[in-house]
Each structure stands twice: as C-alpha cells, then as structure tokens.
Design a protein that fits this description.
Radius of gyration: 54 Å
Structural class: mainly alpha
Largest sheet: none
Strand content: under 5%
Number of strands: 0
Shape: rod-shaped
Distance between the termini: 151 Å
Number of domains: 2
Helix content: over 70%
CATH topology of the largest domain: Serine Threonine Protein Phosphatase 5, Tetratricopeptide repeat
Oligomer: single chain
Order of helices and strands: HHHHHHHHH
CATH architecture of the largest domain: Alpha Horseshoe
Number of helices: 9
C-alpha cells in the first residue's frame, strides 16, 4: 500500500516538473537560435568589412603603382629637359668663354704692342728730325779709294719707322726677299729700338714659311733672348712649331707647355694647346717634359 502511495506521489511530482523543464528547454532553444543568428550576422558584417578593406587596399595599391609609373615618366622627362636646357647650352657657353678668353688675350697683346709704339713716339720723332737735318746738310765728300759709308749707320733719309713699315708691307705683300732685307737692315741700324724684337720675329716667320726650320728656331731664340717683349709669346709658339716640324717632339712640347705656363690666358697659349692636341698630347697643365728626343 505504501509502495503504491509513493509511486503515485512520484508520478504527480514528475507530472508537475516535466512541463516546467520543457518550457525552459524551449526558451533555451530560442535563445540559442537568436544567439546563432546574431553570430551569423556578425560574421557576415565582419566579412563584408574585410572585403571592403581588401578592395580599398587593392585600389590603393593600383594608385601607388600608377603614381610610381607617372613619377618614373616625369623623372625621365625632367632629366631630358634638364640635359637639353642646361647641359648642352652650358657646354656651348664653356667653349665660347674659352674663345672669348683667347680673343681678349690677343687684344691685350695688341694693346701692349700699340702702347710700346706710342711710348717710343718721341724716339721716332727724333729719328725723323735727324733725317731732316741729314737731308738739309751738304753731302759729305767721297771717301778716299771710293769706300762706301759704314754699314752700322743708316743711309741719309732712312728712318726706323719708314724702314720697318716698308719691310712689313713687303712681307704682307709676299715680297719675301725685300722683306728679309728690310728687317735685316732694321736690326743692323735700329737694333736697340722696341720694334727690334718684332723685326727679328718676322725674319723667323720668313724662315719658317720657307721651311728653313733650323734657321727659324735660331731666329725665334734671338727674340726670346731679348727678354720679355711684344713678340715673346708668338716667338715661343713658332719655335715649338718649328721643332715639331723637325721631329723634335719633346722639345716642341716643352716650348708649348712653357708658353701655357707663362701666359695661360694669351691667344698664343690657346694655339699652343691646339698644337699639343695635334701631337696627341694632353693639354693639362704640367711641368715641361725633360724626356729625350723622340
């Protein structure tokens, strides 16, 4: 009897508890479904954000690549424009400056020669005055035995300027024999004047033009032996050329480099550099070569 009663009580209790647990299970299942839906929504939103970020990154990478290509093209164009607008014009300017420097050196030498002539204008006037006095004086009686006057004195009526100008005019006109005689007489009669180095230089030029290179070297050496004068640079240049014609390359190089060292901005120095290039030598400044003849 008691067993039946206990069984009945348990059945009643179970009947009362079962609906409550079932309700809780239903609510728990609903909450779980809502949670799963929220998780799916969050995953979808996260995936969408990641996709947007990846698309943005890809677009940024493409923009960076396009910008890099544009910068490369721009850099290439700028370099070319700079070369066209600066490098080439500057190279031309450099050559023009060198040419202008040579021209200025030639002008300075010309001015020096003109000043030298002007500084001795009084001497020329004195020569002219002496010539006039000689012409006005009665002729001297002939010397015994028919001897001619001394060659150390110019004939009556001959002035240093007239003799020099006539000799230079003959040289320019191609009358080499008359020019040689005129300059030789000038040196014999007026060898102490400022134009004596010029006369000696032109004798050397005549020898050089006639391919008498040994005689030309000797004439130019005499110009250089007279000390610094209006023709020193030209004489050293022509001496170098004559030595080169004689096959004495080392001596020629020495003369050219000495000229460049002594008067680097002169017109003659510019021509000396050209002569060094013709010999296949560097035009950089360095002491004259002391090597033996080649």
């Amino acid at each position: 009897m008691r067993l039946l009663l206990n069984t009945a009580l348990l059945a009643c209790a179970f009947a009362l508890v079962l609906p409550a647990q079932k309700k809780e299970m239903v609510e728990l299942g609903r909450d779980l479904a809502l949670l799963q839906e929220e998780v799916r929504s969050m995953n979808k939103a996260q995936n969408d954000k990641l996709a947007n970020i990846e698309a943005s990154l890809k677009a940024i990478q493409e923009q960076i690549a396009a910008t890099s290509r544009a910068l490369t093209v721009l850099d290439s164009g700028l370099r070319k424009r700079m070369e066209d607008s600066m490098t080439k014009p500057l190279a031309g300017v450099g050559s023009r400056v060198d040419s202008l420097g040579q021209d200025l050196g030639f002008v300075r030498e010309s001015i020096t020669e003109v000043n030298s002539r002007l500084s001795k204008l009084d001497q020329k006037m004195t020569d002219l005055d002496n010539t006039i006095k000689t012409m006005q004086a009665p002729p001297a009686p002939p010397a015994a035995g028919g001897l001619t006057p001394s060659a150390s004195a110019p004939p009556p009526g001959i002035s240093s300027k007239t003799l020099y100008d006539n000799a230079l005019r003959d040289k320019m006109g191609g009358n080499n024999d008359l020019a040689r005689k005129g300059f030789t007489d000038y040196l014999a009669w007026f060898g102490s004047t400022d134009l004596a180095p010029n006369a000696q230089y032109y004798l050397g030029e005549l020898d050089y033009n006639e391919k008498k290179f040994d005689a030309a070297v000797a004439s130019f050496d005499q110009v250089l032996a007279l000390g610094r004068n209006a023709k020193s640079n030209d004489a050293r240049l022509m001496k170098g050329r004559a030595l080169a014609e004689l096959g004495q390359r080392s001596e020629a190089e020495k003369e050219f480099r000495t000229l460049i060292s002594d008067a680097p901005n002169s017109d003659a120095a510019g021509r000396a550099r050209a002569e060094l290039r013709k010999l296949g030598l560097s035009t950089s400044s360095k002491p004259p070569s002391n090597s033996k003849k080649r």
